[in-house]
Design a protein that fits this description.
The structure holds 2 protein chains of 2 kinds. By secondary structure, chain A is mostly helical. In chain A, 79% of the residues lie in helices and 0% in strands. Chain A has 6 helices and no strands. Chain B has a domain of 67 residues. The chains are: A mainly alpha, B mainly alpha. Chains A and B meet through helix 2, helix 3, helix 4, helix 5 and helix 6 of A and helix 1, helix 2, helix 3, helix 4 and helix 5 of B.
Chain lengths: 131, 127
């Protein structure tokens, strides 16, 4: 009995979690492409509520998925409108420092804080888009 | 020097939130346009670039701490990149403004439910 159930568990079911992740990624890319940002929002919601990922893993993995997606958006924006690189430099350097700091602190942040800050950000976005 | 210091510190502060994936970029956009008087189009461009080094820096720690799910990355990154390209092309052909309201409603719903969500422990206690 054990030997017959093991291989089934070892390989993910067809159209199972991998399909969910693919759909979540597709939606994130679509939102990012249409609005120039915000793709992490549907991604986080789908990864936590639908794919049932652990919350912290979901937040961190979202950042990792959105990085290449955002690079695509930045490239498209650059080709279309041109990006001013020089004024961006101090922000980018600050971001580098903040990114390290945030990554270091992430482990100790209670999930409820992450959720609350994220929720505020969503509600602000809702206000911007609905009014 | 002063005009570089403020952007640097604001970038660092919002970078912490960006590293957590909770909307640091949006806060940066607000700070740039409302506090520093950066023009909206330029601020959006800076914001897009900003996420790249900031996220990369945070991922170094996330990876080290085991918070990255490789299965998700393998499936979600390729589909995300393809759809980002397609949607960027589509957004010039169609009016993305039409989608603002439905997306706004989704944000309202997701934000509201997230604020009201209780921790799993609490849920067990009340069940």
């Amino acid at each position: 009995m054990k030997s017959s159930s093991e291989p089934r568990n070892a390989s993910p079911p067809l159209g199972g979690d991998a399909a969910k992740y693919r759909v979540a990624g597709a939606l994130a890319g679509t939102v990012n492409g249409l609005f120039g940002g915000g793709g992490g929002i549907p991604l986080l919601v789908l990864l936590t509520k639908w794919a049932k990922l652990d919350e912290k893993t979901a937040f961190a993995t979202c950042v990792a998925v959105i990085l290449p997606v955002c690079a695509v958006s930045a490239a498209v924006y650059f080709l279309r409108a041109g990006l001013s690189l020089v004024p961006a430099i101090p922000y980018l350097l600050g971001g580098l420092l903040g990114g390290f700091l945030g990554g270091k602190l992430f482990r100790g942040v209670p999930n409820v804080w992450l959720r609350r800050v994220f929720a505020l950000f969503l509600l602000y976005g809702a206000w911007r888009y609905l009014t | 020097m002063k005009e570089y210091l403020l952007p640097f510190f604001i970038g660092a502060a919002t970078g912490v939130l960006s590293a957590w994936g909770v909307g640091g970029g949006t806060l940066l956009l607000l700070c740039m346009t409302l506090l520093l008087g950066v023009d909206q189009a330029e601020a959006q461009g800076i914001n897009l670039l900003y996420f790249l080094p900031t996220a990369a820096a945070s991922l170094w720690y996330h990876r080290k701490n085991g918070y990255l799910d490789a299965r998700v990355l393998k499936s979600a990154v390729p589909s995300g990149i393809v759809c980002a390209l397609l949607a960027a092309l589509a957004s010039t052909a169609t009016d993305a403004a039409l989608l603002r309201k439905p997306f706004g409603l989704f944000l309202l719903y997701a934000g509201g439910s997230m604020l009201l969500q209780k921790d799993k422990k609490e849920r067990h206690a009340t069940a």
